[in-house]
Write a structure and sequence with these properties.
This protein is an all-alpha fold. It is 62% helix and 0% strand. It is elongated and about 65 Å long.
Length: 152
């Protein structure tokens, strides 16, 4: 006699969402480590292309873009503290090139890392760190707004 289980297997999309959550958690936890989409996909037991498609569908951005956002968020926090140089912050958050760090930072935040360090700390004085993190979160997918020239 064959027994029929009343438990159903989880829907494939729920299993994928659980794996995507583990990938996102790994990026959050290990953002300063050398990470690439191939390694993340291998850890999730899927191809890099499949991971990228599912991740973008679930979170609105690619795994690489999410990693860059996490690194820039951490850099913003360190720069607000003011006790590290821009170069030290660059390598602390996982970038291997100061030029790439400065370019990505400027694209997402709208100002250079040096200018941010000089001007951001006073704007968050007295704000609890958890709120400062939300208020200063970099813009994603639309990139930083650029000043438009005034036409007369």
């Amino acid at each position: 006699m064959t027994q029929v289980s009343t438990r159903t297997a989880p829907a494939p999309h729920l299993a994928d969402l659980a794996r995507l959550r583990r990938v996102r958690d790994r990026i959050d936890r290990d953002h300063a480590q050398p990470l690439n989409v191939e390694d993340l996909a291998r850890g999730a037991h899927m191809s890099a292309g499949h991971l990228s498609r599912l991740f973008r569908r679930a979170y609105g951005e690619s795994p690489y873009a999410y990693l860059m956002t996490r690194r820039i968020e951490r850099a913003m926090t360190l720069l607000r503290r003011g006790d590290l140089t821009v170069t030290q912050v660059c390598f602390t958050v996982g970038f291997s090139s100061l030029g790439t760090f400065s370019t990505r930072f400027t694209e997402l935040v709208g100002t250079t890392p040096s200018a941010y360090r000089d001007h951001a700390a006073p704007t968050t004085d007295g704000i609890p760190p958890c709120l400062a993190h939300q208020v200063t979160r970099p813009i994603r997918n639309r990139e930083a707004p650029t000043a438009r020239p005034h036409l007369r």
